[in-house]
Write a structure and sequence with these properties.
heterodimer, A: about 140 residues, alpha+beta, Beta-Lactamase, five-stranded antiparallel beta sheet, 4 helices, globular, B: about 190 residues, Muramoyl-pentapeptide Carboxypeptidase, domain 2, four-stranded antiparallel beta sheet, ER-Golgi transport (chain B), NO_sig/Golgi_transp_ligand-bd (chain B)
Chain lengths: ~140, ~190
């Protein structure tokens, strides 16, 4: 069974620019994934406001009975999050690697327009390699 | 998991793929030359180079953050040091020095002793107003804007104009708040 259920990338204004589904259960249609992305964007922002400490960067991990959600926000405001099996390890490292792939294969693609949905084959290709790779390999990074 | 330690410019420079420096220099030269042919006016070329740099900068900043593991800078002084020591090293293989802070700490100069863009360049008399490396100022402006700093970047000294070094003046115009919700009137 796949440990990672799905991956989302949200631009800095809360629009979903990338969504990929890896599990068979709980597949979402486009509208639902868009809604979920903008909900997460708002919840992330609210969590920063609610935090009793200053300099809070928002929710990093949400744990539920049936899944974990790991979120990473780049300093430029782009958010990456994965939904995975509870207790899956090394997701922070994975998100970091995905961020690097995004900078290499999305932002460096001259035909990609900033803040728009990602349709880059090279990114898809490298992403699936990273996701498929044994998670032990991620440990070394 | 503890946050990853920031890497030095040298470490990042060593770990990323690079192109031959001469190819890079010549390609840039060919591009500037073409702009001069197309736009005819030196001022227009300066403007265009700056705009191209800006477009690069807004994308480059993410690569910089992803590969250097640099975290949020506490103040503008730290930002300046990071640009000079990590940023320039990582992308151009050179180090800049930060000098001439003003009293309020909102503007500084970046001095480049070495500049790979100009290795074979001599400015002809017809192009004296050309800021040959204007792309660099655009990159800085674009990159800083994406991490909520509006800046103005200008050339103060230029070896192609007979000065003894390259000097870029970076002035912080305003810091845009990045927290949501944005104020209603914005």
């Amino acid at each position: 069974m796949a440990a990672i259920y799905s991956l989302f990338i949200i631009n800095k204004s809360g629009g979903l620019i990338f969504y990929k589904d890896y599990g068979s259960a709980g597949r979402m249609d486009t509208n639902d994934s868009l809604r979920l992305a903008s909900l997460w964007h708002s919840m992330h922002a609210i969590s920063q406001q609610l935090s009793p400490t200053t300099g809070c960067a928002g929710i990093e991990l949400l744990q539920a009975h049936t899944f974990d959600l790991h979120c990473f926000q780049a300093l430029t405001g782009t958010k990456f999050f994965v939904v995975c099996e509870p207790g899956t390890l090394h997701m922070e490292a994975l998100l970091k690697v995905i961020y690097e792939l995004y900078t290499d294969y999305v932002l460096k693609n001259p035909f990609y327009e900033m803040e728009m949905p990602i349709r880059c084959e090279l990114f898809d290709l490298n992403l699936s390699q990273v996701i498929q790779k044994d998670r032990v390999a991620l440990l070394g990074r | 998991m503890a946050p990853l330690a920031p890497k030095t410019g040298d470490a990042v420079f060593a770990s990323v793929d690079r192109v031959n420096a001469e190819l890079f220099t010549l390609t840039y030269g060919a591009m500037v030359r073409q702009l001069l042919t197309d736009l005819e006016e030196v001022d227009e070329v300066n403007k265009q180079l700056d705009q191209m740099g800006y477009n690069i900068g807004v994308r480059l900043i993410d690569e910089f953050l992803a590969k250097s593991n640099v975290s949020r800078c506490v103040d503008f002084k730290e930002t300046a040091d990071v640009i000079a020591k990590v940023g320039f090293k990582m992308f151009l293989g050179i180090t800049a020095s930060v000098t001439s802070w003003d009293a309020e700490g909102t503007s500084f100069s970046l001095v480049l002793e070495d500049n790979p863009l100009v290795d074979f360049v001599e400015l002809p008399d017809t192009c004296q107003g050309l800021h040959y490396c204007n792309i660099l100022s655009g990159v800085l402006r674009g990159a800083l804007e994406m991490v909520s700093m509006k800046t103005e970047v200008t050339w103060v000294r230029d070896m192609l104009h007979g000065d003894d070094a390259y000097e870029l003046r970076v002035k912080l115009l305003k810091q845009v708040p990045e927290e949501y919700p944005y104020k209603d009137d914005e």
